[in-house]
Design a protein that fits this description.
Blueprint: H1 2-25, H2 34-53, H3 77-96, H4 106-124, H5 128-146, H6 148-224, H7 231-249, H8 256-267, E1 271-276, H9 285-301, E2 306-311, E3 317-326, E4 332-341, H10 343-346
Parallel strand pairs: 1-2
Antiparallel strand pairs: 2-3, 3-4
Length: 347
């Protein structure tokens, strides 16, 4: 769409500059030096069309949100210098081509409107200093050839307005592009926030469902028996309570195999404490699966009285499993120490 708009504007530019050039060649009586007038017109058209079409598309792809809005390509330096040279040479050539008494005729003053249009093109192509320099040169030359009052009345004011309006439009387009980009960024942040909230909501719902599945039968039995549970039921309640604690404190460490290993360890009478201090979410899904498999294997082979499972953000170690049991002297001793590495899991 932006390319189509640019093509239409380029065609309109060619048509308008050709109209100005035709006005310089329409005369009832030929100027004193018609060949010089024709040469000035040809120089103007070549320069104007070069400034319009030379590298008129940006070298880099447009932003996916704003497209090419506010991305008018920069006019090459040599083309900007050529436009400024044309603003110096062409008006002088046009007035020199006519007799002194004809310098206020349309085919003599056409250069003021023509240079104004050329400098507006230069402004749109991101060369504001060159554009205003061209207008200043035009104003000085026109005042020298036909006087200040006639110069202002016959085209200098219009040239200033064209270039000023072109600069204002470029500023508005740039501002619109900036506002569009900022709005897109706000919308993207809002979408990410909503997605994160939805993810947390789903996670909370899953935890609630799992909690009901774990604790529901125990709570139902406790209510039915009015709290009078036998030893097996008390052990089931203790295991359910520990499983709920695992879900709240270390969900990233758990899968069905690990949950089964934890339940089996607790059924053997082992006290198991599981804590996740973060770090696993930074790993890939395959790495987390490998860590959980190793953890389940360690839990299945542990015979300690108490097990402490801790996941951390350590650079080398993903999970540490520590087992403690009472020694012959009654003092606690460490009888299990296993570190599950992070890097092999990533590889």
């Amino acid at each position: 769409m932006s390319v189509g708009i640019r093509s239409v504007l380029s065609v309109l530019t060619v048509a308008f500059t050709a109209y100005l050039a035709v006005g310089a060649l329409l005369w009832t009586t030929p100027p004193a030096r018609p060949l010089l007038q024709i040469a000035a017109v040809a120089c103007y058209l070549v320069t104007t069309w070069l400034c319009t079409f030379w590298k008129a598309r940006p070298d880099v792809a447009g932003d996916p949100i704003t497209g090419e809005l506010g991305r008018s390509p920069l006019l090459p330096g040599w083309a900007a210098a050529l436009a400024l040279a044309t603003a110096v040479v062409m008006p002088n050539a046009s007035w020199l081509a006519v007799a002194p008494e004809d310098r206020l005729r349309d085919y003599a003053t056409w250069s003021m409107g023509a240079i104004g249009a050329l400098m507006a093109i230069v402004m749109v192509r991101r060369r504001p200093r060159v554009a205003w320099a061209g207008v200043a040169v035009l104003a000085v030359q026109a005042a020298a050839w036909i006087g200040i009052a006639d110069a202002l009345a016959l085209g200098v004011v219009g040239a200033v307005l064209w270039v000023g309006v072109a600069q204002l439009l470029m500023w508005l387009v740039d501002r619109a592009a900036q506002d569009t980009a900022e709005l897109a960024e706000v919308e993207r942040a809002a979408s990410e926030w909503l997605a994160a909230q939805e993810g947390r909501r789903v996670e909370r719902r899953t935890l609630v469902q799992r909690a009901l599945a774990l604790a529901g039968p125990v709570l139902t039995r406790t209510i039915e028996s009015q709290g009078r549970l036998d030893d097996a039921e008390r052990d089931a309640a203790r295991i359910a309570e520990a499983a709920l604690r695992d879900e709240l404190r270390a969900a990233a460490l758990l899968d069905d195999v690990v949950r089964g290993a934890l339940a089996a360890a607790r059924a053997r009478g082992t006290l198991v404490s599981v804590l996740d201090e973060g770090g696993l979410e930074e790993l890939s899904a395959a790495a987390r699966t490998a860590i959980r498999q190793q953890l389940a294997a360690v839990l299945a082979g542990a015979d300690s009285e108490r097990l402490y499972v801790r996941a951390s953000r350590h650079d080398e170690v993903a999970v540490t499993v520590v087992g403690r049991s009472a020694g012959d002297d009654g003092e606690d001793r460490v009888d299990l120490w296993r570190e599950i590495p992070r890097r092999p899991a990533e590889e």
